[in-house]
Amino acid sequence: MSTEIISITEDCIGCGSCSNVCPRYVFDIVDKKAVTNQNLFRCHDCGHCISVCSENAIINHRMIEKSLDEDFPKKGKTLSYDQILETIRQRRSIRYFSDKKVTKEQIKQLIDLGRYAPTGHNDRKVSYTIINDRKELEYLLDSMIELFKKLKKQLNSIFWNVLAVLAGKKKFFDKARKSLYRLESHIEHWEKGIDKVLHYSSTLLLIHADNETSSPIEDCNIAAQNIALGAITLGLGATFIGYVQKSWENSKRIRAIINLPDKHTLHACLAVGYPKNNYRRLIPRPVAEVTYLR
To answer: What pLDDT, on a 0 to 100 scale, did the predictor assign at position 1?
Structure first.
């Protein structure tokens, strides 16, 4: 059966694997052959059917641009649990980057790590904005520090405290006040020429998505975690910088500097670069709290 989206060749043996893995219920098995059904229009190009087909009998015309072997290379050797765990444990939030520049080729490799992350409903709408110049980042930092000073003034203001109570935001305001020392520290250090916000990184990956995407927050952060884990294989480090995201949310000036496409929201930010320090040991973590529900 052939359609404008999916073709199934005569090589099909009707094993049912495509039907088993399809999240949109596109396939039926009729007379020991796979056929597409009325749900075909729901296909969101996840590629599961092609990945499991033992006979290479399924062609998705929206996905395969070159050849099956190029667009869908055969699965390689799976890493062991220990290898994966050690890679995860090697990830560190870098607090001091060297001045060695990240290349455009490395940035492309990092984005490749992100684009293979899962997305809700396979929307694939994660986008990236790159700042790869230290002077530009220092300009951004100057603007962020000005915002921090404004927030500091508000958090210390009796008027804003009363307003928070009247608006039912006292818990939020009190929580913000507990972190006031961080803003004060960032302001104090930056005025001395010390970067405790971006940690001297010369590259910033801003990860954002269209607001109409099914799960933009999750999509962006899963992509960011892929990048953070894979960065170490390139000799790089990556650190989540929540201050940039929050500054973007709360400042028109920051939004003008970080000029995202219309209807896009910034959901994750990574400072990327070469770590200044060499991490020699893996770090322990508390045992997870686990509850089994019957």
So the answer is: 42
How far are the Cα atoms of 118, 163, 164 from residue 157, in angstroms, in the given order?
44, 10, 11
The Cα-based distances of 103 to 131, 132, 203, 205, 226 in angstroms read 12, 9, 9, 13, 19
Residue 193 is assigned to a structural domain of this protein:
yes
Which whole-number Å values give the CA distances from 201 to 99, 134, 171, 236, in the listed order?
Answer: 7, 7, 34, 11
CA atoms of 16 and 60, how far apart (whole Å): 17
Whether 235 and 90 map to the same domain: the answer is: yes
90 with 44, same domain? no
Task: Indicate whether 143 and 260 sit together in one domain.
Answer: yes
User: 53 in a domain, yes or no?
Assistant: yes
Distance between CA atoms of residues 23 and 42, nearest Å: 10
**Alpha-carbon torsion, ordered 241, 242, 243, 247, to 10 deg:** 120
- The rounded distance, in Å, linking the Cα atoms of 131 and 141 is 12
DSSP run (H or E) holding 169: none
Q: What is the pTM of this model?
A: 0.88
Domain match, 196 and 224 both: yes
Query: Residue 172's closest CA among 182, 164, 160, 180?
Result: 164
Do residues 108 and 249 both lie within one domain? yes
Q: Give the pLDDT score at 285.
A: 93
Sites in the chain below the pLDDT cut of 50? 1-2
Pair (50, 166) in one structural domain? no
Rounded to the nearest angstrom, the gap between the alpha carbon of residue 271 and the centroid of all alpha carbons in its chain is 13
CA-to-CA distance for 282 and 52, rounded, in angstroms?
Answer: 37
Quick check: is 1 in a domain?
A: no
How many distinct structural domains can be found in the chain? 2
Q: In this structure, what are the phi and psi dihedrals at residue 22, rounded to the nearest 5 degrees?
A: -70, 120
What is residue 2's predicted lDDT score, i.e. its pLDDT? 45
